[in-house]
């Protein structure tokens, strides 16, 4: 008996008078039964990357407004959300994060919904979700995302320096993790102190509620065996002296990320859908404060209820393109060649898809249904 395939809806970027891309996105959402997916009055998070300040490749707020307005037709209460970053940047605490979102156009006038940061003011509002998988027994998810009744995951599909590509799985697994969860995925040892930057102010010592930081002379020092990996010290240090040891092996990092994706939607698998934007396919994550030129032409928009299928389809669409010369793409320019390996030759991007299918997050086999 043939194996069933997941449905992935696709629309290209061609438009005509009276039929804009916003109209086409609405037609795609109509392909799934939103009314039965979300109940009257439910709180539904729209998980999106607001873009680091200076980055311009994130999804336009206009597309988010389409999703918000469509959900509101069914008396759903949508809100825009993301979790704070592990690194110090323009989205590392909720105040900076919301200001960045507003400056990048995600204000109430534009999107018709509030912005609520998923893991609280400093990234330590978390909910532990039991998964009992290979790497984690529990995962640490932003509390407001975990408490949401449902999710719409809107992802800018692009290359990524650790996972090969960033799509729905990364948006779920890395994006919905608390600061503690992000550290657990990226590193298997405690943060460390860059001694030349430490001024001995003691703020980190006072903040650490686990007693894992002490003063040795006039410098702070982290006691690795006591550190629980909450990563809050990284944010509170005024001099940026506490640094992450980005030491996790890439295949393991990808599996850890997938386990977090599993945990994020464990209790709401039937109340989620995914939209991938295959536009401005940049060579690196939107977490950078800039975006290099795309490696291929714009392709279109995909929508599915299966995060594995939509990411596999997105990879296949990108790899069928002819790559641009004079970009970060160093090889794989021909149609059918691996664009992600063309940017990051040492990164195998397939483990996340293989593992996600193995633990039941979705299927790699899909059928494309075109929405004209």
Low confidence ranges:
none
Strand order of the largest sheet: 3-2-6-13-14-1-15
| Percentage of residues in helical conformation | 25-40%
Strand content: 15-25%
Described by strand count, sense and barrel closure, the largest sheet is:
7 strands, mixed
Mean pLDDT: 94
What is the approximate shape?
globular
What's the alpha carbon Rg, rounded to whole Å? 21 Å
| Order of helical and strand elements | EHHEHEHHEEHEEEHHEHEEHEHEEHHHE
Describe the structure.
The protein is globular and about 70 Å long. With 372 residues, it is of the alpha/beta class. The longest helix has 16 residues, at 250-265. The mean pLDDT is 94. The protein is 30% helix and 18% strand. The protein is built from 14 helices and 15 strands. The strands form 5 sheets. A 7-stranded mixed β-sheet has the order 3-2-6-13-14-1-15, sandwiched between helices.
Secondary structure blueprint with pairings:
Blueprint: E1 6-11, H1 21-29, H2 34-37, E2 43-47, H3 61-72, E3 77-81, H4 94-103, H5 108-111, E4 126-130, E5 138-142, H6 143-147, E6 150-156, E7 158-160, E8 164-166, H7 168-173, H8 179-186, E9 192-193, H9 203-207, E10 213-216, E11 219-222, H10 232-236, E12 242-243, H11 250-265, E13 272-278, E14 300-304, H12 307-319, H13 339-343, H14 351-358, E15 366-370
Parallel strand pairs: 1-15, 2-3, 2-6, 6-13
Antiparallel strand pairs: 1-14, 4-5, 7-8, 9-12, 10-11, 13-14
